[in-house]
Design a protein that fits this description.
This protein is α+β, with helices and mostly antiparallel strands. Helix content is 27%, strand content 27%. The chain is built from two helices and three strands; from the N terminus they run βαββα. It has helices at residues 14-25, 53-57, and strands at residues 2-5, 30-36, 41-46. A three-stranded antiparallel sheet has the order 1-3-2, with helices on one face. Strand 2 (30-36) and strand 3 form a beta hairpin.
Length: 63
């Protein structure tokens, strides 16, 4: 399970969070994406061997 900080991109409506979850789930290697919109966090179930980290990093904010 991966946790990424999406803030400020994810602090949106539930419909927008669902749309973002679908985009994240479409990344190669991401099996499941759960968005906690109020916190700007995404929890991802991934296959590390197949994960396209470059594509995933486009959604993450550096802490």
């Amino acid at each position: 399970m991966w946790k990424i900080n999406l803030s400020p991109f994810c602090r949106r409506t539930p419909a927008q969070a669902e749309k973002l979850a679908k985009k994240l789930a479409a990344i190669p290697g991401v099996a499941e994406a759960i968005i906690i919109a109020e916190e700007g966090i995404a929890y991802l179930k991934v296959d590390a061997g197949a994960l396209d980290e470059r594509a995933l990093n486009k959604f993450s904010v550096a802490l």
